[in-house]
Amino acid sequence: MSLDHHRTHGRVRVWDLPTRLFHWSLAACMIAAFISAQSGGYTAQRVHFLCGYAVLVLVVFRAAWGFAGSRYARFAQFVRGPAEILRYLRGLLAADRPEGAAGYPGHNPLGAISVMVLLAACFIQATSGLFSKDDIASEGPLARQVSDALVDRFTSVHDAGESVLYVLLALHLSAIVFYRWFKRDNLVVPMITGDKQIPDDLTVEAAQDRTLWPRALGLLGVSALLVYLLVNWN
Ligand code: HEM
Ligand code: HEM
User: Fold this and answer.
1) CATH number 1.20.950.20 given to 7-231
2) Which of 36, 49, 109, 128 fits as disulfide partner to 85, beta carbons 3.0 to 4.6 Å?
């Protein structure tokens, strides 16, 4: 059964369930990692580390899903070169048709940059944490595997990453508000329900959803295993 290649309009599935679960889990784990970093104490530190590991698993999963996921989850579907990004930027304020109707049912060429940058930033933050160490008792599980100088570098990256992520997340949320207010396009609902409303005069390809979850679970398992092995290196 392949829904994937049906061209359709009306309510169209764009974000498969694994992509949606990925997104909201990532958001939850990132926020929990920020909050747990604020307070000291053993429990907060455990929570901080565990959230970071979860972020790592999620990002590794998403990287795989960018090749093995359904139509609009694939990097090749939405990552575009400078020419198309510029063209998209020029038309951005002109039309106020929703993205789905404007030829981009999935991520638009500009959004694609933010997807990749957010994923990379989350990955760098979690990875640097593994090698970080503060002056008191907090030490990432791999800090003893590398030199003190390297630990200092990673710790600086981890500290600086906090501000970088705040800026990226502010941009992320501002973009969503921008589309909502100025383009009358609600991007949040599709990231929850999976569906976008495509006008009747247009047809787009729907993403396959239901039949993909065994593959998603497999990839999630492999991601978790890889991260587990990395974290327990010594
Ligand atoms: C720490 C918090 C967050 C992180 C790290 C994050 C990261 C991301 C990433 C990586 C994507 C790409 C999704 C994919 O294709 O895999 C994305 C998309 C999206 N995020 Fe977030 N997100 C966060 C919080 C939020 C919040 C709080 C909201 C809503 C209020 C939100 C709304 C969205 C929406 C609507 C999209 C889809 C954008 C589109 O249609 O192209 N995100 N986010
Ligand atoms: C990706 C999610 C993560 C976020 C958002 C995050 C965020 C933060 C923040 C904001 C701090 C406080 C920095 C400061 O003192 O100014 C911190 C500290 C720390 N984090 Fe993370 N972290 C993440 C993942 C991890 C992971 C996976 C580990 C290790 C297992 C880790 C280990 C540490 C350590 C050892 C510190 C204390 C050293 C330092 O101040 O940099 N973090 N983290």
Assistant:
1) yes
2) 109
